[in-house]
Amino acid sequence: DAMVIQNPRYQVTQFGKPVTLSCSQTLNHNVMYWYQQKSSQAPKLLFHYYDKDFNNEADTPDNFQSRRPNTSFCFLDIRSPGLGDAAMYLCATSRDSGANVLTFGAGSRLTVL
Amino acid sequence: GQNIDQPTEMTATEGAIVQINCTYQTSGFNGLFWYQQHAGEAPTFLSYNVLDGLEEKGRFSSFLSRSKGYSYLLLKELQMKDSASYLCAVMDSNYQLIWGAGTKLIIKP
Protein backbone atom coordinates (compact mmCIF):
# COMPACT_ATOMS: atom_id res chain seq x y z
CA ASP A 1 0.00 0.00 0.00
CA ALA A 2 2.97 2.30 0.46
CA MET A 3 2.68 5.06 -2.12
CA VAL A 4 5.74 7.23 -1.49
CA ILE A 5 8.74 5.15 -0.49
CA GLN A 6 11.99 6.56 0.79
CA ASN A 7 15.28 4.74 1.20
CA PRO A 8 17.12 4.40 3.38
CA ARG A 9 15.00 5.19 6.44
CA TYR A 10 18.15 5.83 8.47
CA GLN A 11 21.51 6.91 7.08
CA VAL A 12 24.67 7.47 9.07
CA THR A 13 27.56 9.12 7.29
CA GLN A 14 30.84 10.75 8.14
CA PHE A 15 31.54 14.43 7.80
CA GLY A 16 32.20 15.15 4.12
CA LYS A 17 31.22 11.69 2.82
CA PRO A 18 28.61 11.95 0.03
CA VAL A 19 25.14 10.59 0.58
CA THR A 20 22.28 9.79 -1.79
CA LEU A 21 18.70 9.48 -0.62
CA SER A 22 16.02 8.02 -2.88
CA CYS A 23 12.29 8.44 -3.26
CA SER A 24 9.86 6.50 -5.41
CA GLN A 25 6.14 6.96 -5.91
CA THR A 26 3.35 4.81 -7.28
CA LEU A 27 0.80 7.63 -7.45
CA ASN A 28 1.82 8.93 -10.89
CA HIS A 29 1.89 12.43 -9.44
CA ASN A 30 3.43 15.18 -11.52
CA VAL A 31 5.15 17.07 -8.71
CA MET A 32 7.85 15.76 -6.37
CA TYR A 33 9.37 17.69 -3.48
CA TRP A 34 12.34 17.36 -1.16
CA TYR A 35 12.05 18.89 2.30
CA GLN A 36 14.56 19.14 5.12
CA GLN A 37 13.11 19.07 8.64
CA LYS A 38 15.07 19.58 11.83
CA SER A 39 13.71 18.78 15.24
CA SER A 40 10.72 20.98 16.23
CA GLN A 41 11.11 23.10 13.10
CA ALA A 42 8.98 23.67 10.03
CA PRO A 43 9.79 21.60 6.96
CA LYS A 44 12.11 23.55 4.65
CA LEU A 45 11.64 23.10 0.91
CA LEU A 46 14.91 22.30 -0.87
CA PHE A 47 13.71 21.47 -4.41
CA HIS A 48 10.68 20.52 -6.36
CA TYR A 49 10.03 19.11 -9.81
CA TYR A 50 6.99 19.68 -11.95
CA ASP A 51 7.41 16.68 -14.22
CA LYS A 52 11.00 17.17 -15.36
CA ASP A 53 11.11 20.90 -14.71
CA PHE A 54 13.49 21.46 -11.83
CA ASN A 55 12.93 24.25 -9.30
CA ASN A 56 15.67 25.11 -6.85
CA GLU A 57 14.77 27.20 -3.82
CA ALA A 58 16.92 30.32 -3.64
CA ASP A 59 18.40 29.49 -0.24
CA THR A 60 19.15 25.80 -0.88
CA PRO A 61 22.91 25.33 -0.42
CA ASP A 62 24.97 24.20 -3.42
CA ASN A 63 25.94 21.15 -1.38
CA PHE A 64 22.50 19.73 -2.18
CA GLN A 65 21.67 18.40 -5.62
CA SER A 66 18.70 16.51 -7.00
CA ARG A 67 17.81 14.26 -9.92
CA ARG A 68 14.52 13.03 -11.27
CA PRO A 69 15.34 10.45 -13.98
CA ASN A 70 11.68 9.52 -14.53
CA THR A 71 8.20 10.20 -13.17
CA SER A 72 8.49 7.64 -10.41
CA PHE A 73 11.91 8.34 -8.94
CA CYS A 74 13.69 11.26 -7.37
CA PHE A 75 17.08 11.44 -5.67
CA LEU A 76 18.66 13.85 -3.21
CA ASP A 77 22.46 14.03 -3.26
CA ILE A 78 24.36 15.68 -0.44
CA ARG A 79 27.85 16.14 -1.78
CA SER A 80 29.75 16.94 1.41
CA PRO A 81 27.55 16.57 4.47
CA GLY A 82 28.29 18.78 7.41
CA LEU A 83 27.09 18.46 10.98
CA GLY A 84 24.39 21.03 10.22
CA ASP A 85 22.90 18.77 7.56
CA ALA A 86 21.79 16.20 10.11
CA ALA A 87 18.02 16.18 9.75
CA MET A 88 14.98 14.28 8.55
CA TYR A 89 14.66 14.47 4.75
CA LEU A 90 11.11 14.18 3.54
CA CYS A 91 10.02 13.39 0.01
CA ALA A 92 6.49 14.41 -0.97
CA THR A 93 4.34 14.31 -4.08
CA SER A 94 1.27 16.11 -5.33
CA ARG A 95 -0.96 15.44 -8.30
CA ASP A 96 -0.35 18.88 -9.71
CA SER A 97 0.94 22.27 -8.76
CA GLY A 98 -1.47 24.60 -7.04
CA ALA A 99 -3.51 23.88 -3.95
CA ASN A 100 -2.97 20.14 -3.89
CA VAL A 101 -2.55 17.88 -0.90
CA LEU A 102 0.98 16.61 -0.35
CA THR A 103 1.57 12.91 0.21
CA PHE A 104 4.74 12.33 2.18
CA GLY A 105 7.10 9.41 2.39
CA ALA A 106 8.18 8.11 5.78
CA GLY A 107 11.39 10.14 5.64
CA SER A 108 15.12 9.46 5.72
CA ARG A 109 16.84 10.42 8.94
CA LEU A 110 20.45 11.49 8.32
CA THR A 111 23.07 11.41 11.05
CA VAL A 112 26.47 13.00 10.38
CA LEU A 113 29.38 11.92 12.56
CA GLY B 1 8.13 38.51 5.21
CA GLN B 2 5.76 35.61 5.41
CA ASN B 3 4.98 34.13 8.79
CA ILE B 4 2.96 31.38 10.42
CA ASP B 5 2.50 31.39 14.20
CA GLN B 6 1.40 28.44 16.28
CA PRO B 7 1.89 27.64 19.97
CA THR B 8 4.96 25.49 20.51
CA GLU B 9 3.35 23.01 22.86
CA MET B 10 -0.04 22.22 24.39
CA THR B 11 -1.18 19.67 26.95
CA ALA B 12 -4.67 18.17 27.20
CA THR B 13 -6.43 15.30 28.91
CA GLU B 14 -7.69 12.13 27.28
CA GLY B 15 -11.37 12.49 26.39
CA ALA B 16 -11.27 16.29 26.43
CA ILE B 17 -11.34 18.89 23.62
CA VAL B 18 -8.39 20.98 22.49
CA GLN B 19 -8.12 23.91 20.07
CA ILE B 20 -4.83 24.61 18.29
CA ASN B 21 -4.59 28.11 16.84
CA CYS B 22 -2.69 29.29 13.80
CA THR B 23 -2.26 32.88 12.65
CA TYR B 24 -0.65 33.78 9.37
CA GLN B 25 0.71 36.70 7.39
CA THR B 26 1.39 35.75 3.79
CA SER B 27 1.60 37.28 0.34
CA GLY B 28 -1.83 36.27 -0.84
CA PHE B 29 -3.81 33.22 0.14
CA ASN B 30 -4.73 30.04 -1.71
CA GLY B 31 -5.75 27.84 1.16
CA LEU B 32 -4.67 26.58 4.56
CA PHE B 33 -3.68 23.02 5.41
CA TRP B 34 -3.38 21.12 8.67
CA TYR B 35 -1.09 18.10 8.89
CA GLN B 36 -0.49 15.69 11.74
CA GLN B 37 3.05 14.45 12.39
CA HIS B 38 3.86 11.74 14.91
CA ALA B 39 7.38 11.82 16.32
CA GLY B 40 9.93 10.60 13.78
CA GLU B 41 7.30 10.09 11.09
CA ALA B 42 6.12 11.94 8.01
CA PRO B 43 3.28 14.49 8.08
CA THR B 44 -0.16 13.23 7.09
CA PHE B 45 -2.94 15.43 5.72
CA LEU B 46 -5.80 16.35 8.03
CA SER B 47 -7.74 19.22 6.46
CA TYR B 48 -7.84 21.99 3.89
CA ASN B 49 -9.74 25.29 4.18
CA VAL B 50 -9.96 27.89 1.45
CA LEU B 51 -13.29 29.54 2.35
CA ASP B 52 -14.28 31.02 5.70
CA GLY B 53 -16.02 28.73 8.11
CA LEU B 54 -15.83 25.38 9.79
CA GLU B 55 -14.99 22.08 8.11
CA GLU B 56 -15.83 19.01 10.17
CA LYS B 57 -14.28 15.61 9.67
CA GLY B 58 -15.07 13.13 12.40
CA ARG B 59 -13.37 14.11 15.66
CA PHE B 60 -11.38 16.82 13.90
CA SER B 61 -12.66 20.20 12.70
CA SER B 62 -10.84 23.11 11.13
CA PHE B 63 -11.93 26.73 11.05
CA LEU B 64 -10.77 29.60 8.87
CA SER B 65 -11.19 33.38 8.97
CA ARG B 66 -9.38 34.95 6.03
CA SER B 67 -10.07 38.51 7.18
CA LYS B 68 -8.34 37.78 10.50
CA GLY B 69 -5.57 35.61 9.07
CA TYR B 70 -6.58 32.95 11.55
CA SER B 71 -7.37 29.26 11.69
CA TYR B 72 -7.82 26.67 14.37
CA LEU B 73 -7.86 22.91 14.52
CA LEU B 74 -10.34 21.46 17.01
CA LEU B 75 -9.81 17.94 18.29
CA LYS B 76 -12.65 16.31 20.23
CA GLU B 77 -12.76 13.17 22.40
CA LEU B 78 -8.99 13.15 22.61
CA GLN B 79 -7.24 9.80 22.46
CA MET B 80 -3.68 8.95 23.46
CA LYS B 81 -2.85 8.34 19.78
CA ASP B 82 -3.58 12.03 19.09
CA SER B 83 -0.29 12.89 20.77
CA ALA B 84 1.63 14.37 17.85
CA SER B 85 2.71 17.64 16.30
CA TYR B 86 0.14 19.56 14.30
CA LEU B 87 1.50 21.64 11.43
CA CYS B 88 -0.34 24.58 9.91
CA ALA B 89 0.66 25.50 6.33
CA VAL B 90 -0.61 28.30 4.10
CA MET B 91 -0.41 28.41 0.32
CA ASP B 92 0.50 31.90 -0.84
CA SER B 93 -0.34 33.71 -4.06
CA ASN B 94 2.48 31.88 -5.89
CA TYR B 95 1.17 28.53 -4.66
CA GLN B 96 4.19 28.19 -2.37
CA LEU B 97 3.49 26.41 0.92
CA ILE B 98 4.53 28.36 3.98
CA TRP B 99 4.85 26.06 7.00
CA GLY B 100 4.52 26.73 10.69
CA ALA B 101 6.92 25.03 13.10
CA GLY B 102 4.10 22.90 14.49
CA THR B 103 2.35 22.54 17.82
CA LYS B 104 3.36 19.56 19.92
CA LEU B 105 0.24 18.16 21.57
CA ILE B 106 0.74 16.07 24.69
CA ILE B 107 -2.22 13.97 25.85
CA LYS B 108 -2.32 12.90 29.48
CA PRO B 109 -4.48 10.06 30.83
What's this model, at a glance?
Helices cover 0% and strands 51% of the residues of chain A. Chain A has 113 residues and is mainly β. Helix content of chain B is 0%, strand content 57%.
Looking at the structure, what is the overall shape of chain A? Answer: globular
- Biggest sheet of chain A, open or closed, and with what strands and sense? 7 strands, mixed
Query: Could you tell me the radius of gyration of chain A in angstroms?
Result: 13 Å
Query: Globular, elongated, flat, extended or rod-shaped: what is the shape of chain B?
Result: globular
Number of helices of chain A: 0
- Described by its quaternary structure, the protein is heterodimer
Radius of gyration of chain B: 13 Å
Q: Helix- and strand-based class of chain A?
A: mainly beta
Could you give the count of β-strands of chain B?
11
How would you characterize the largest beta sheet of chain B?
A: 6 strands, mixed
Count up the helices of chain B. 0
